[in-house]
Fold each of these.
Amino acid sequence: MRPEMGGSPVFKESLGTRDPAEAARLFVAANARLQVMMDEAEKRILAARSLDEISAERAGDIVSRYLATYRPDNLFHPFYSLARTFYAEETCVRLHGFVAERSTPMPMEDTDNLSFKRGRLLVGDQWLDFVRDRPRSVWIKACDEILVPLFRFATPPVKRIPENEFALMDAWNVRVEEDSRRFHDAVNNPPRARSRSRLDSGLRFGELLDRWAEARTPRPQTIHDTKVAIADLVAFYGDIAVSSFTKDMLLDYRDAARGLPLGMPRADRELPFPARVEKYAGTKLNRVGATTVKKRIGAVQALLGFASQEGWLEHNVGRGVTVEGAGRPKIRRRSFRSEELTTLFGSELFLHPTRLLDRRTKVSDLTLYWLFLFGVTSGARIEEIGQAHLADVVRRDGVLHIDIDDYVTDTEDGAGELEKSVKNDGSRRVVPIHDRLLDIGFERYVDALRRADQRQLFPDLTSNMFSKLTQEASRRAGRYIDRVVADDPRLVFHSFRHTFKDQGREAEIQERILDQLCGHAPTSVGGKYGSGVGLPSLKRNLDRIVFAAIDWDAITAAAANVKWVDLVQKLVARAKITSPSD
């Protein structure tokens, strides 16, 4: 208070009168002014103190990083918080009557030595009782052996004020409770055979990525994204050991990634990460979205979590790092409205199908034609449709359907080149062919492909680097919707999935059957029992959805003029697809 009140030990103010009555009156006013000055000084002190205070999260991070500096040959390995706690208890032996004789861990102790400690007083026991039973103002005085190294270790420096002392000791005592419990478990239940430490101080991020990919077998695109994130991380910090990586480093990497622009020329994308960050620092360009940054940081967190889980890291420093704004989709997809379905399926693509191969495009109008029709009548994802093989189009129980799965028969020539995938286990399902597609000529299209010795339902779809077949088809579908229906970012091919669900509910199809058709997990408890309805029932329910906004008669009449054999042969020749018999 003294510095805020001018620095003098006594605050004086003359009343300017010798008249006792006048002095009494002036004193009241002077005393009120003094009280206001003291209140304001106290506010300034509290404000300055609050700026100096650290959060519980920061205190926990300081304690974790400090304990991570201990080596396995330490006397208290692996219960490192008990080391400094031992010295705090030594202080309490003198000041508070603690028992001096207590058992400590020993490096590489065998089972017999651990069993010998059973029932004895262990390091940490008296300290935890002391903290629970005594006021904070008492036990904090015995904490210098812990606080001094913590304040010295903290980077950036932390001001030593009572609030920060308590924050650090609260975080420390949490670790003491954890280590004490594990120490007691080791004494009471010693391992039959001692295993070596799994900590790997020499592990680098590149090797960790390889181990993670082998153990977790993620999707190719996930592996690619993770490799990019790790390559940029290594470019930013060098090829450091994973054990030396800190939470602060991950936060700095996150903040650097936030500064990258939304789009870059190819030449700039090929620059090392630090060069990209430096080049675009301070520019006014639109920055990458929070979801993109989260994908990058999440890749690093996945590796750190895996390393911690496998015991190669003492602590997972990636836990708790967040990206503000991530996970909030800016654009929610919506269903097609009735008039939009009328417009889309009344366009040239569907009313003049004899011209489906008049234009040369990477993904043909013929393929786009069937993808749209399948999308609206099945609610299937575009990749689920696009990856289908002719072997997946089968008839069972009198119902023609498509098997949506990730299985490729060994008998298919070139099967190893035709990978398939599903989003999750629930996505594996059978999808009956709607009567409207049969009327249009789907079976004739399939027969033409089989006569041409094709394996895929859509021969002109080719895999990208992640073994996905429909990347370009999805782009073409989106551009066609923008041009013909509406330039609405919420309206994409996936909107057919929402539309199918809406149309099914309007037809009063049971929700569990709609879930089965779409490959969704059941939303009710009862829906999780049983294996679903059979194909004939699925087919009957599917055909009840009529999609009344679409002029099916016009589409069917136009398709009657199509010579599917000629069209497929032209498609195969154009795509230069060699049949197995060649």
Note: Confidence is low (pLDDT under 50) at residues 410-417, 523-530, 577-582.
Amino acid sequence: MRAAAHMAGFFHDFGKYDPAFDRVLCGDNVRVDHSTAGAALLCARAPAGLRPCAEVIGYAILGHHAGLPDRRNADSSMERRLDAFRDLIAPEISAAAKPDFNPIAKELTARMRPGSAPFDLSVAARMVFSCLVDADFRDTESFYAGLNGTRPDRDWPALADLLPEWRGVFDAHLAGFDQSGPINRLRADILAHVRKGSAMTPGLFTLTVPTGGGKTLASLGFALDHAVRHGHRRIIFTIPYTSIIDQTAAIFRGLFGDAVLEHHSAIDDERTDPERKDKLRLAMEDWAAPLVVTTNVQFFESLFAMRPSRCRKLHNIAGSVIVLDEAQALPRKLLMPALRMIDTLCAHYGCSVVLCTATQPAFDSRQLKQGGLPLEGRELAPDPVRLARELRRARIVQGGEMDDDALIEALRDTPQGMVIVNSRAHALELFNAAKAEELEGLVHLTTRQYPVHRRAILEEIRARLKSGAPCRLIATSLIEAGVDLSFPKGWRAEAGLDSCVRGGVDRNRMSKRPAIGHSVAPFAGAWIETRPIMPPSAAASVAPFAGVWIETQRSTFRVAQAHRRPLRGGVDRNIDDGKNIFAPA
């Protein structure tokens, strides 16, 4: 995109040749539209067949201050701005400009596929826009820094320079793990197989490993090895929930130190080194750091944004290894554009994207016929069905209803247990009711608390569980988002089947809990029984469900059918009463 970016930079301030802009430079308080002239000139000079090239550059120029405009209809649209433009620039200056659109046409054509050309072209326009606005911001920043005698700290080491050291640190960290026991050996096998997959050609990948199988470190190992083999410039981990992003970022910082950038809305500034705050704040603007840990919101909203400040980082996403953790959590209403975007990043911008989850959604084009991804043969894990069987540790049973009084009585008989409900209001109400009953070790955890408080609460929970002290947790679904906790027993309010599954397996993540007796505690949804990791029997009633095992029961599905909602990630497989509906496709 060198020619396109060069032309955008060359013409973006062409309107400053307007004589009225001299008054601005002299300090007069007058407004001069300097961002329309360059776009108007390019659109006027482009041959008919190359007009789209001029419009791609024109979008970036028109939007480099106000944001990308609409094509038509709005008052600030490209069409209306060009129609209303009055050219006051001296004719001899305009005549001296001789834009050559042929190199740009070649660049754009190379980034457009049959059947996807309009979307591909829109992403190319965004990449040009990102290059332009980031360069413009930096140029302005440099000018004022020179006047003030300062120098912004935007220096980050290149990933290629860090990889030899990082891989050594990573291998040393793994060598410190206990290799005894079946679960540790299984994790080691998964890691070795995933790292071996780094030799595959860049593009789209899936990593389907049940909870507790070591997905985070396996995906990191893949990213490091893949970047070494294929020259990627950056590693980006995107996580759907702020409730677990601290956990992941802390692991990476513990390994790689200050070269890790954490970017999300719940960052605790008080925990940040004061001397590094400005550097990190600047890095959040353009993602220049070699390893970025961020949220799906930051990632996808930046890719589809129109404001210059949000789009500055787009060109730095190109050439990255991107791990989409908990890929099933992509919002259903936004699924199609999100899938098209990551497909385009892989096809045209040198990215590799790993869809990492215990419950792999049906994004494969063989299942999702319109808009699916070419994922055949791109699984990194060794035999996900076998892993689901060997890492089984939860049994989900559908039940009837339990009111708050019944839940409190159940907790009273369970010194270490948890209840997951569907709303913050219900969680607070239940917590207050349990507190009034003087239950010992009560803990309340929802997104009502600030992130700094949630971190402290989680540490308290871990300490109680480790010491065997009473710990009765009342929480919302945020606890299902990969938080490392292990309870012996729990209740989950009725919700999507994936939430019930995660409420079970995520509560026995490390397989520390022994099997417990079968005693169903119905709670308008699911009672969760944790089990140790052992290969299940080959009972006909057990069917694998993308990383966990559910014992199918006809009565269970009658209830579930009446109350089901689509599974996260847009996968809504019909519930057929009494059948093994979750068998892999």
Note: The chain is about 45% helix and 10% strand.
Amino acid sequence: MPISSWWSSTGSRRLLTGALWLTAAGVISKFLGAFYRIPLARILGPEGVGLYQMAYPLYTMVLNLATAGLPVAISVLVARKSAQGDHSNALRIFTASFWLLFVLGLGATYLLYMYAEVLAVRILKDERAIYSLWAVAPAIFLASMMAAIRGYFQGYQQMMPTALSQVAEQLVRVGTILLLTIFLMDKGIELAAAGATFGAVTGGLAGLMVLLFLFYRWKGNLSFRSSVYHNEMIREVAMTRSEALQGKSSYLSLWKSLLLLSMPIALGGLVTPVMQTVDAVLIPRGLQLTGYTAPEAAAMFGEFSGMATVLIFLPTMVTGAVGSSLVPAISSAWSAGNQQLARENYVTALRLVTIISWPAAVGLAVLALPICTLLFHAPGAASSLTWLAPAVVFTAFYQVATAGLQGMGRTFFPVIALALGAFIKGAFNLWALPVYGLAGAAVGSNVAFGLAALMTVSYLHWRSPFGFSWLFTLFKPAVAATIMGVYAATMLPYLTDWLGPWPGLLLVVLSSGLVYLMTLLAVGGLRSSDLAALPRVGPKLAQWQRRFWGR
């Protein structure tokens, strides 16, 4: 793809294009990530998979500590400079962040390698895990380098490099895992497990090579980027270059700005694992207090956390991609003083996640039993999935409002909101679990995410002119999703009896999506201007809607 085609779209279309790139990459990566686990389990067996799983949580924790929210902070600072046409300082921010992440990533890799034996023996309680820890350690350094480049591109609202590198990373990772486990299995199960974890290194190397290739093509196209990008942003933010260009900041001041922006984001990233830990501690104990045995409580918790919760957070992969695209879009407009453009980007993102999250929540609630039965052979998880479904909408709103605040540079409040939600969730679980069982835990999750979303959206509207039509944004998609849910619940027994479980469920899902779309068009919840913002096919769809619906 020519570099010039990266800038073939403007405004909300670029926002949607970036979200589509990240969503597509996420779907492919998730599919590959799910696919390889089946042959891996057959090759390694439960013991080998256990050694493999021991290393990965430590790897992800160390990686999160090393990068510490820096990609978002980089994208925010780069977006501010790029909106002003100050590309030299945007590149300087990237250089400063690159060397900061270079040092952090190298240091984290060294520490994990040096203390692998201590972690394996004292923490993991299995000295064989040392080989997996050694094998995965270099991946932290490579991932840190990728984080810097991805943050730079995202500051320019370019999500294609991130998406392509994610796909390349996952493809090479999965191939390495399968090849090395087969090759090393005869040399011992601990080495075979280490070979599997080494896939993170080869995958990271592949992703980094893709990003470096795209970065040098981007950097080499400076004349195009300076003229087209700057002229476009002049039109959108109504600034002059003389107002924008400023003196060079020292690396020390840039590092300070990066760390100040990234620390609240890093803290926010720790809240969700803490909430999951609270569930892991309180739910099994609460269920035992109601009379279940320890094995029964563990099985029920597995259905709640490992099945229902996993399905609930699948739609957030899409809404999270919208949020990632929104951060630099808000930052560039807000820093330039164009509040109207910032509001348009925010409302576009909010309406998009609303249109996505409502049917996802209703569909998961209505079709919970066949989904859990066919996917997991666990009909008992259906009740938890039904109760948890509203969290899809709450999480989507929280993600977009958080992205808006991060784009404005106000990164700390979302952490407070989510932390308060986590605290209330823990207190709610202590009271509700012994009385209502897993339904109480699900309601606690809804309360947590609902409160966090309400607080974050309200705070954003208080600190900015980002008001929107609640009727148009919320009510109309909710009405369309409700009609879709009634249709799905009515047609499910007929279609599954006629076609069988899998084909019947698939046809219900597809036809329900069509019912939702047609109903949304009928009630005016989707306008021709919304469709026109879609890349490539948008103008044709908008023309079709104006012809048939008159909007």
Note: The first helix runs from residue 11 to 67.
Amino acid sequence: MNTGIYSAMTIRRIEMKWLALLLTLIACTCFAAGNGVRAAEQDGYAPLYGEIKPLSAGDTIYVWTKQRGRSADNRFIAVQTLQGITARTDRPWLWIDVGDNTFTDYLTKRYDIRFDRRYAKDFDSLLSKLKPFTSGRYVLYDMQDRPSISAATTMAGLLDAVAIDVELEDIAQAKGYQQAIDVRGKDCRWVYDNYRDQLNDHAIIVHTNSYREHPSVGYLRDWGPALKALDWWYDDEKLSSEVYSSITPCSPVYGWQDPTTSDEGLTVKLHSQEGLYQVPSDWMVNLSVHAAMGPAMKDRTFKQKVERNPPEKENDVHYVTFIMSDMDNILTEIGTNSFYSNRSFYANQHRGEFPMTWGMAPSLVELSPAAVDMWYNAATANDAFVAYCGLGYFYPSESPAMSKHVDQLSGFMKRADLRTLLLIDRLMPDQDLAQDYSKHAKWFTNMDQVRGLFYLEYVRYAPHDGKIFWFDGKPMVTARFDFRDEAFYSAVRRTPQSLADSINDLPKDPSRPDGYTFVTVHAWSKGMDDIYETIELLDDDVKVVQGEDFIELIHSNLKPESARKAK
């Protein structure tokens, strides 16, 4: 993690002075000071971090500690809306402590960002301290009136006014805040009908306001105010489609699920059909602080540690690669107790002992470039990264915005040094994956830096038996096995022994497509210990490789189907 660069205090002081100067110059030039309500556009492109102001080396951020229990969520929501507003009007002033110091420690060590805990348990004083960066007003809502939570979250951003529950109104007034608007009895539809022209049309938050539907109600409440984006949760499909169609194509949907649909697949299909993509983030906290490194590091590129020498060709072997699932979900990379700090994943004792492939959400180069830096700095030469799902979770077969999507994705992947891409689509059970999928895959294979694709199906990740398709001379490899606990279809392997036995039984011949196995590792039921145990049970002529080498070996040893048929 580059601890050696600060081994001498003198060197550290010099580096910090230069870093402070650099980031301050960026801070002065990235954004104008206007009060526009749309996302700040640069050369026709609206960055994912919107109008959030950059952090600079030496900045101090106040820490507030979230209390446990749903009864404290009204303070949690108030502080988050305050957090999002200040990140946009001045710069990030507030970090919410939910029990994981991984990212704050890294910001301090790497970028000299300091964290002050004087207000950690002092909600009242925090309101006073940060009032100058707001309009000095509040949006009144009622935690018992669930739709008003969504309305208050949006209006907080439009009015630069803290969202205050009725139980906290006396405190806000005592600190000199005045009521801007009362949204009790109102909902997200009322906000949309009356304020649509003031809303950011480059993002939308679709996030529950009902604890009965999901307990994450209190989370992700800084992001709407930071972006001036609509916080939407409405169960009318026709109206929701109208709202989604008002968002600029190829824009993100933050949160998770949708009240108009019955499951994940239908939610992502709905958003994909509107040309949008999902950024799973329902439990996210402090996203406005993560994103403040976006403008500060907007010209930064990143470098993986994998060695990119041509992999050695061998005969009489079977190649296998393991890819951790679900890493389109930014919570796995930057959420509280993310995979980075989890002993089942990146903090596992066996990491580095065998080739492993991790997902990387390409959008993090703007949403949290410091986290990309953190993951890559801690990587070993055995840790490779694959771009997971594109800009976010979406179904390519449903999206009408593919040209714009891949244009933006290409830039993000180049910045993040990503050369392979994992796609998820929803074809089964309606249709089989076949060669005519080329009309969807071509968007990605036409990207110069993409060497090959991995493919998963929604729900049943591996129904295609490891088949390899060729599009534009590049392979798309389907998963052969799904390593998880729940055995609900034939490709699932529940134990290291059963998975190893299945792999050992496969041909040891890299000149054949069935000489390669892509295993998707279900992150919610399996981890690094399970992979390590599996590898220990593999035959000597089964070779584990990371994802990039896996694709390169296929290029070296196999030929596209079209070339075979031409012979």
Note: The chain is about 35% helix and 15% strand.
